[in-house]
Amino acid sequence: MGNPPVIGVFDSGVGGLSVLREIRDVLPEADLLYVADRARAPYGTRALSEVEAISVEVAGWMLRRGADCLVVACNTASAAALETLRQTYRQVPIVGMEPAVKPAAAFSRTGKVAVLATAATFQGRLFESVVDRFASGVRVITRACPEWVQLVESGEVGGAQARAMVRSVVEPLVDDDVDVIVLACTHFSFLTPLIEEVGRVAVIDPAPAVAAQTARVVSSIKGEARLTMAASGEIDVFAGLARSLAGIEAPVIPFRP
């Protein structure tokens, strides 16, 4: 028998830790490799072609270090590169992020749902395809919140500044009868308590669904529960954020693509 697969998870920064946390809950024995490409963050303000090239590079780095399955825990990277990654690395299963418009449309009673993401996510063909397929009968309102990404990357997810920034986006949506908010950026998962507090709306976070899909595509889950994390930029800063935001503590190695 061969070695159990290593699941590689990557994001521009700490947002993908929300997905990593869910994967660890669903697959507690799995061996995991997480990459935070913080030196080039945020991805959401870059051109899609640039994010595509970066994603191919990060994925190749992870595969060379033993990843047998890839999880693109970044909506922007999924929008920009998911199709290319699957064509380039056909030898491994690749799971990506898809805005959860379908369950939002089914759950909404007002017929208005909001999708919060980065501008780049909305520019990708993936988002247009999801809306075309699943948003029949509902109005989808999009809001780009790049400042939320920076907020989470700074670790400020519960203070007065975070509350004011969340309120400025969420309250107008609620006033417009939005009753479901879709988080289409993994960073925003860490703001869910504030969003629910400010807006009193249903919040759909795709991280649990992505973890469940990862469990379906991995051939074996019998590992040693090892977690290795890698980061570009300041390693100590990332390690502290992983601990404070996600309760995750593990060795962090340099990521140098």
Looking at this protein, list some descriptive labels:
Rossmann fold, globular, 4-stranded parallel β-sheet, 19% strand, 10 strands, alpha/beta, 257 residues, 2 domains, 6-stranded parallel β-sheet
Helix count, per DSSP? 11
Rg to the nearest angstrom? 17 Å
Number of self-contained structural domains: 2
Q: Classify the helix fraction into a percent range.
A: 40-55%
Question: Which stretches of 5+ consecutive residues score pLDDT under 50?
Answer: none
**Under the CATH scheme, which class of the largest domain?**
Alpha Beta
Shape: globular
Q: Distance between termini?
A: 31 Å
Sheet having the most strands: 6 strands, parallel
Order of helices and strands: EHEHEHEHEHHEHHEHEHEHE
Count all strands and give the number: 10
CATH architecture title of the largest domain: 3-Layer(aba) Sandwich
Percent range for β-strand residues: 15-25%
CATH topology of the largest domain: Rossmann fold
Give me the secondary-structure category: alpha/beta
| Arithmetic mean pLDDT | 94
Biggest sheet: strand arrangement: 4-3-1-2-9-10
SSE topology:
Layout: E1 6-11, H1 17-26, E2 31-37, H2 48-64, E3 67-72, H3 75-88, E4 94-95, H4 101-107, E5 112-117, H5 119-123, H6 125-134, E6 139-144, H7 146-153, H8 160-175, E7 180-183, H9 192-199, E8 202-204, H10 207-217, E9 227-232, H11 235-246, E10 252-254
Parallel strand pairs: 1-2, 1-3, 2-9, 3-4, 5-6, 5-7, 7-8, 9-10
Helix pairs in contact: 1-10, 2-3, 8-9
